[in-house]
Amino acid sequence: MESEEIIINIKKETEKILEDCEYSAKGHFENAKHWRYCNYVLMFASIVSVCGSLVFVYGNLDKFWSGIIAISSGIATMLLVFLNPQEKYLSHYNSGNRFLTLRNKTRIFLEIESKAMNTEQQRQTLKELDSKRGSLNETSLPISNIAYKSAKKQIEIDKNTRYKVDKE
User: Fold this and answer.
1) Is the pTM of this model over 0.85?
2) Cβ distance 139 to 27 under 8 Å?
3) Pick the residue with more confidence: 17 or 49?
4) Which of 5, 20, 36, 44 is spaced 20 to 30 Å from 69 by Cα?
């Protein structure tokens, strides 16, 4: 392959990494938002149902409803422990930030650093960036289909992930 053709292919692959990072970061942030809301809802349900069951028990009110509320409290608490939405929120949030970091490094390589590098240096940097992307994909939780679709809509339709200077 000719040197100029190799450089063009390196640029294309680098742009693919940029795009992957953009979608992955946004998808992880969308998933993090979902798990944060899930955590709040389950915590609220758990607290309210515990308080409600205590009111029923100590208020000598209907034992049937007291039991129902106590069971719902147990279910909400069990879901909090089993699903662990706070941990999933943090995992997705951190993954989103790591993908943004990789995107920024890749963009700087593409726009600035690659222009001062020879072909072999560009190849090596591309391999490092690709390896980092693969590592992030392996260690990150999967993105839900809903989060992916929301991220795709925001990126492709809203165009809210672009910098002002890039729009000019």
Assistant:
1) no
2) no
3) 17
4) 36
Q: What is the pLDDT of residues 41-57, one digit of tens each?
A: 999 988 888 887 777 77
In this structure, are residues 113 and 125 in contact, taking their beta carbons and an 8 Å threshold? yes
- Distance separating alpha carbons of residues 99 and 93, to the nearest angstrom: 10
Both structure tokens of 44:
């609220």
CA 119 to chain CA centroid, nearest Å: 34
Residues in the chain: 168
Whole-number Cα distances in Å, 30 to 18, 49, 142 = 18, 29, 12
* Contact (CB, 8 A) for 97 and 63: no
Asked whether 141 and 31 are in contact (CB, 8 A), the reply is yes
Please report the DSSP string for the chain in residue order: --HHHHHHHHHHHHHHHHHHHHHHHHHHHHHHHHHHHHHHHHHHHHHHHHHHHHHHHHTT--HHHHHHHHHHHHHHHHHHHHH-HHHHHHHHHHHHHHHHHHHHHHHHHHHTGGGGS-HHHHHHHHHHHHHHHHHHHHHSPPPPHHHHHHHHHIIIII-TTS-HHHH-
